[in-house]
Write a structure and sequence with these properties.
- The structure is a single chain.
- The protein has 184 residues and is α+β, with helices and mostly antiparallel strands.
- The chain has 3 helices and 10 strands.
- Strands 1, 2, 3, 4, 5, 7 and 8 form a 7-stranded antiparallel β-sheet that branches. The chain has a 3-stranded antiparallel β-sheet with strand order 6-9-10, with no helix packed on it.
- The longest helix is centred in the first third of the chain and has 18 residues.
- The relative contact order is 0.18.
Length: 184
């Protein structure tokens, strides 16, 4: 009887040691998602003139209030604009510039611009270390007078290279907005 108890105890101990693994693997670093409350796009016409500012500000984040979306004026027809975008976390004081993190982690981010109506094209003027577009600096060319929309979406871990569309880029959306524009 004593032998059976000892054998049972040894079997239990053996199973216990086999069930415990030696997990010496380094845990995967967790990159916490930053809070982005504000996206500001500045479009400066080549050759001078008044810059146009597009802004989406959502100070309550996922709260009940819709973002405040503003466009400072109309775009000129058949004009080339140099564009830049800034992302901020205005829940902190002073506001945290999230654009700096996007620049530092440029291989893991891309701003996707999609347009409709009277915008002829949007092209990227910056790239990451692998030569893929980032989208913090870009060029917009307008067409003839009329209405247009431009969406700007910051994607985290998109497929690179991609065809410049949200569908092909994949990844996770960090911030997005659609702006209604007038081209005069």
């Amino acid at each position: 009887m004593k032998t059976i108890k000892i054998l049972s105890l040894l079997a239990f101990i053996g199973i216990t040691f086999m069930a415990c693994s030696n997990d010496d693997d380094v845990p995967e670093e967790i990159n916490e998602e930053e809070t982005i409350t504000t996206m500001t796009i500045t479009l400066a016409p080549d050759g001078g003139g008044t810059s146009i500012t597009l802004q989406s500000q959502d100070l309550d984040g996922d709260g009940p209030n819709a973002p405040d979306v503003t466009v400072s004026g109309s775009l000129a027809a058949n004009t080339t604009y140099s564009g830049s975008v800034v992302f901020l976390n205005e829940t902190e004081s002073p506001a945290e510039d999230i654009t700096e993190e996007v620049e530092e982690e440029d291989e893991e981010h891309q701003v996707i611009y999609e347009t409709s109506g009277n915008i002829a094209s949007v092209s990227y003027d910056d790239e990451d270390g692998d030569g893929n577009p980032v989208g913090l600096e870009f060029t917009v060319i307008t067409a003839d007078a009329g209405d247009a929309t431009m969406s700007a979406t910051l994607r985290h871990e998109p497929k690179k290279p991609n065809d410049g569309t949200l569908a092909d880029a994949g990844g996770e959306t960090d911030f997005t907005e659609i702006f209604s524009l007038t081209v005069e």
